[in-house]
Design a protein that fits this description.
alpha+beta, 2 domains, 5-stranded antiparallel sheet, 4-stranded mixed sheet, elongated
């Protein structure tokens, strides 16, 4: 984790110095400051560990939070890493919480590992009830770059993309705006759009016992597994600004989206 407390005050691992005793904001147990050339500066629990905040985080996930927070601060906005939202149950941390000039809170959720639909809907509903705008940003899977191709300048296309379940939820939550995605290798953002993928069912024919000829196929059908993914970009965090819109509650099959303030990104 990137945040600990020192004498009751929040401090981040980048400004912290070795020597003082730091504590976990969740369980209040002592944590160790880890700094080095090969690791993201962070705090780690001392074993034995039973704190929910002690679960391992990838380097890419921690780096993504810093990328977002630094870009927001450079724009003069207040931004806090791993900010605790009191109205949420379970792990109550937003990866990054920002405040607009008018005081509106905006939660950034950088989604590296898959998250269950019940969990993402619970968190989204909690943000909505608290009046917090939210944006969910999935990480781009490495195979995207090998499975797709450059369609044109600034546009990358994957004809057969198998979206993770939570990506389908995020795309539906954002509606026609599409979903912003993060490339952890180049630390850049892409705007993604999912469209239906059609495949051709080959025509076949056979004869029944009575000698009657039967046929099937010979048409295009929408795939349940695959979508077509178009990515527009890339964009550096400092070249994007925040836009806020409001969406109404909606349900479709196994997905539910709350009435909420939706944050999106726009190129400057």
């Amino acid at each position: 984790m990137l945040i600990a407390t020192l004498e009751g005050n929040r401090t981040d691992a980048f400004s912290a110095e070795k020597g003082p005793t730091y504590f976990c904001p969740q369980c209040s147990n002592e944590v160790i400051l880890k700094k080095g050339r090969k690791v993201v500066h962070h705090f780690a629990h001392k074993p034995p560990v039973n704190c929910a905040w002690a679960k391992g985080e990838t380097r890419a996930h921690m780096e993504s939070k810093v990328v977002v927070a630094d870009a927001l601060k450079a724009r003069g906005l207040r931004a806090e890493l791993e900010f605790v939202v009191d109205t949420m149950a379970g792990d109550r941390r937003a990866d990054v919480m920002a405040w607009s000039p008018s005081g509106l809170q905006i939660a950034f959720e950088m989604q590296h590992s898959p998250i269950g639909i019940e969990e993402i809907e619970r968190r989204a509903t909690s943000y909505a009830r608290a009046g917090i705008a939210q944006i969910w940003i999935p990480f781009i899977k490495p195979n995207v770059w090998t499975d797709g191709h450059n369609k044109s300048l600034g546009e990358f296309f994957v004809e057969r993309y198998s979206p993770r379940q939570f990506e389908r939820w995020v795309h539906g939550f954002n509606g026609k705006n599409g979903m912003w995605m993060y490339d952890p290798v180049d630390k850049e953002f892409w705007l993604g759009h999912l469209e239906g993928h059609q495949y051709y069912v080959e025509q076949t024919s056979w004869y029944s016992e009575g000698g009657e000829e039967n046929s099937a196929g010979g048409f295009f059908k929408y795939s349940k597994r695959y979508k077509e993914l178009t990515l527009e970009g890339p964009y550096k965090a400092e070249n994007l600004r925040i836009a806020i819109s409001k969406r109404r509650a909606f349900s479709a099959r196994e997905y539910n989206w709350p009435t909420a303030l939706v944050a999106s990104l726009e190129p400057i």
